[in-house]
Backbone:
């Protein structure tokens, strides 16, 4: 994963490559969140795992300079990519893309630990051909948006 540092989101320094796994595949769509139970950041990304198809993998880091070797984070049994995460009222929510039919689905977990996620929605997308979901909270209301 390509990495830079910034204190103002306008200038960037410290360009480096953060190695997340040793698989003979690419890595894309990383998203990180603080995992309080591990006192580390979870970096969740899409990659072709040992399953032979795209799935969500995870590596953990405290400094974004070194990371643990990637392991499977979420495997619904089919090609899935592009996870995005939010914690709301003690529950973790993840939305991701199913590559089998190009739709978005939701899963949830009380811990955000690898392999602790349960799918709780059917397709939530308006049709085929969507990807890279983002969950955004309204600045002044208790309203959430799935983009």
Residues:
């Amino acid at each position: 994963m390509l990495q830079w540092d910034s204190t103002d989101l306008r200038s960037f320094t410290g360009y480096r490559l953060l190695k997340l796994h040793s698989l003979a595949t690419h890595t894309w769509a990383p998203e990180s969140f603080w995992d309080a139970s591990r006192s580390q950041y979870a970096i969740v990304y899409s990659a072709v795992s040992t399953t032979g198809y795209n799935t969500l993998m995870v590596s953990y880091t405290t400094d974004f300079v070194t990371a643990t070797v990637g392991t499977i984070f979420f495997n619904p049994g089919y090609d899935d990519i592009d996870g995005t995460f939010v914690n709301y009222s003690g529950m973790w929510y993840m939305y991701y893309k199913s590559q089998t039919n190009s739709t978005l689905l939701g899963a949830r977990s009380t811990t955000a630990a690898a392999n602790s996620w349960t799918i709780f929605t059917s397709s939530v997308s308006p049709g085929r051909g969507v990807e890279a979901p983002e969950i955004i909270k309204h600045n002044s209301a208790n309203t959430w948006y799935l983009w």
In short: The CA atoms of residues 83 and 96 lie 4 Å apart. The radius of gyration is 16 Å. The chain is about 0% helix and 50% strand.
